[in-house]
Design goal:
- The chain is an alpha+beta fold and 557 residues long.
- It folds into two domains: 397 residues, Glycosyltransferase (Alpha/alpha barrel), CATH 1.50.10; 94 residues, Immunoglobulin-like (Sandwich), CATH 2.60.40.
- It contains 16 helices and 28 strands.
- The longest helix is centred in the first third of the chain and has 17 residues.
- It starts with 5 loop residues before the first helix and ends in a 20-residue tail after the last helix.
- The structure holds zinc ion.
- Zinc ion binds next to α11 and α15.
Length: 557
Amino acid sequence: MTDPYWLQRATSLAMDALLARLDLERGARPYFWVDYESQPPQAQHAYWDICDIAGRFVDGLVLARLITGRQDATEAEAQLRRFLWAQQDESDGLFYNPDDEQPATNAEMSKYIPAAGVMTSRRHLDLFCQRSPLLAMTTLMQLGDESMRPRLQKMVRGLWAIAEHRGDEINFSTYRWAPALRPEWAAPVNVPEKWVGYRHALLTGLARYAQLSQDPVAIDLALGIARYYMKHGDVPPDGRFRANTHSGGVLPVSVGVARLGLAFGQRELVEWAHRVYLWTRENTPDFGFLRDGLGLEGFWSGTCETCGIADFIHLAVLLTEAGVGEYWDDIERVARNQLLENQYRDEEAMHRLFPGLDERVLAMLKGGFECAARPNDLLTWKGAEGCCIGGGLRALYLTWRSALSETADETRVHTGVSRRTTHTQVTAHEPRQGRIEVEVLTPRQVAMRLPAYARLEDSSAWVDGKPVSPQWEKGYALFPALKPGQKIALCYPLPQRRQTYTIADHEYTADWLGNVLIEISPSGTHHPIYRRRPQLEAPLVDAGATWREATAAPILW
Ligand SMILES: [Zn+2]
């Protein structure tokens, strides 16, 4: 966290966890579930492995390679992709959960247990599980893999064929689908069958594909789903929803709605998604503890799932880049705090918690992200879901790629994230120092944003070690006419503050330094988090040279 390359390091760790979860003896089928109620913890194959996790992992690996430059494990990756493509039906392009699915050996394998009495063991389509293959294919298509286009075209037409069309609204009336609908699918009593957002969450990827391809069927399908969800979904017109943020699909759908509104010039869609963002933000502690059950009662109203953080950051990035609002500080604060702290890193804690922990299972946990975090603790539930490795990598990617934007003659640095491009090398030193440095590699102007908590009059600007008085433009310091080799810096004091929070009826006290939460009390007891004070005092190991991140313009999510 105190390393300027915290984001690259976290990504590399997550990539290790992802690779460890591939079962190479079963064609790289991922393990969704690590059950840590059984002692020692066991990895288990589960319903979600097949389409959802395989799709997230194909996507996540590509994004992780862009951030870290890592080129290892290409054979495992190729196997994983073959595994995912094998689930796509050749005739309708949809991704099916196959016939031979075993009934869950552990009923608690996930918070979305195939609901009691709902048959999931026969080959069928799970609409939530269409989401991550869409993300994966759209990511690959953006990298120039043209073999994705026919796959996507077929899938979109497959979705179109099974959807309900009423006027200009389109929806999926059941969460599961097969040529012969089972009666319990049509009369859902449990989650996730009941959630409207869950079966339309695929809008995240569909909207991006529609925007990229301009495929007319994809555009009509995506806009039709957006219209339906805005009217009949989980969000009232004022945006003040009570629902499960990620797992209920609200935020994944909202990301799609925002993108469609921006891509196709539909203002009411953008405003709707903005209301969802503002309400979520208002109900989320500023360090990014996004509750899964927002405004609900019960267990999930007091826990944070990393996948939800990815959606929240995604929505913030889209709205900010479009100029609808300015949420750069939200993005950086959430990423540096709850996102990063949701990552399992403390091996000692894991060994203490799970005596006899197998090295292979440890490798699946370490670097993975929590699906049910407490504000001060991880690993307090029943098991570790694999989805959050994909979610964590997406959140890291969105933070990394949005940190700066560049044109032929200007770089704008929006957040304090170290990153190298063909034009600049940015090094951010928070929380050790309030200092962002830019080394210029091609002639250009650089604009650097001052974090919202810092006062302009307390800041200082430097060019090649000499103080300068830059011109300011909407919170950005301008450094014009720079030549290759010049180094500039923006410095600011890091204020300390103490704040109390009440989360799910528990009180917490947090100590902040700038945008970084340093310590939270009371401390957790399983895998305590926010214990950053000792790191601040430890000597800095600058390992920036080990990252060979992609320097070309990144793919746009
Ligand atoms: Zn998750």
